[in-house]
Each structure stands twice: as structure tokens, then as C-alpha cells.
Amino acid sequence: MRCGPLCRFLWLWPYLSCVEAVPIRKVQDDTKTLIKTIVARINDISHTQSVSSKQRVAGLDFIPGLQPVLSLSKMDQTLAIYQQILTSLHSRNVVQISNDLENLRDLLHLLASSKSCPLPPARGLETFESLGGVLEASLYSTEVVALSRLQAALQDMLRRLDLSPGC
């Protein structure tokens, strides 16, 4: 007996009919929980408490500070930059945080697609290759400043998620 596409579809129908879409409220709650987890991980790294997120450090201006109004695409862009910086540090302290940022970006993409506004691919730092010397000369300072500013940015994102940010 030959089974065509209709036959295969009918065979899969019981499985497909049980699949439910994830409620957007759950995705938003998971996003907030992951942000809180990342902030807790940063707090667990003791040396990040020594620098204010607002303090300017010469040569580290490429690390983003707080953005005035964060849309979902700006949040994704900011997280992409932090992820690029943390990945380049090669520090044991930031490996899990970098992985968490990737997961957080995926959740932001889900939130954006639920609003019918797919996020454009995030651009990293264009001049990142030229910063290699700065990173090598000051790995510790870069890590401390990046984590401090990331923590402030994440706390701001957490507040803004309650306001249902736009695309």
C-alpha cells in the first residue's frame, strides 16, 4: 500500500493536535527569571562590586552604558555587544554568564516574534578587532567594568519588560 502526503499527515495529526503554543506570559516570566539569575551570577563574582557602572574608565568606552529607551531590538543589540566582550575575555568567571546572555537573546527574539516584529541580526562591535591590545593589557579591568555595566543594563531591562517594550 502506498501512503501519500495525506496519509502521513493523518498519521501525525494526533501528535500535532496536542502541541500547544507557549503562552507569551510564560516567555516574559522566563526572561525576567533569567535576567535575575544573571544578575545573581554577577553579584557572586566578588570583584565586580568595586566599580560603579557610571564610572568612566579610560580606554574602555566601547563597553556600553545605560541606554535611555530600550526597545527589544536595542536590548538584543546591547546583549550581543556584552556577549562579544565577555567571550573575548576568556575568563572562567564569565563563561556561564555569556551562555546565559545567548539564552536571554533567544527569549527576546521569542518576545519580539510574538509582537510580529522579528529582530534584525544584532551587530557586534565593528571595531572589536582593533581593541585586542586594550583587552590584553587590561583583562581584569575590562571584566570588572563590563560586568558592572551589564548588571546595570540588565536591571534596567528587567524594569522595562514590565512596561511591554516596543520593537
From TrEMBL:
It comes from Vulpes vulpes (Red fox). The keyword Thylakoid does not apply. One of its GO terms (cellular component) is cytoplasm. GO terms for molecular function: DNA binding; hormone activity; leptin receptor binding; peptide hormone receptor binding. This is Leptin. InterPro entries: 4_helix_cytokine-like_core, Leptin. Disulfide bonds join 117-167. Belongs to the leptin family. Residues 1-21 form the signal peptide. Pfam families: Leptin (PF02024). GO terms for biological process: adipose tissue development; adult feeding behavior; angiogenesis; aorta development; bile acid metabolic process; bone growth; cell surface receptor signaling pathway via JAK-STAT; cellular response to insulin stimulus. It is found in: Secreted. Keywords: Disulfide bond, Secreted, Signal. Key player in the regulation of energy balance and body weight control. Once released into the circulation, has central and peripheral effects by binding LEPR, found in many tissues, which results in the activation of several major signaling pathways. In the hypothalamus, acts as an appetite-regulating factor that induces a decrease in food intake and an increase in energy consumption by inducing anorexinogenic factors and suppressing orexigenic neuropeptides, also regulates bone mass and secretion of hypothalamo-pituitary-adrenal hormones. The keyword Cell membrane does not apply. The lineage of its organism: Eukaryota, Metazoa, Chordata, Craniata, Vertebrata. PANTHER family: LEPTIN (PTHR11724).
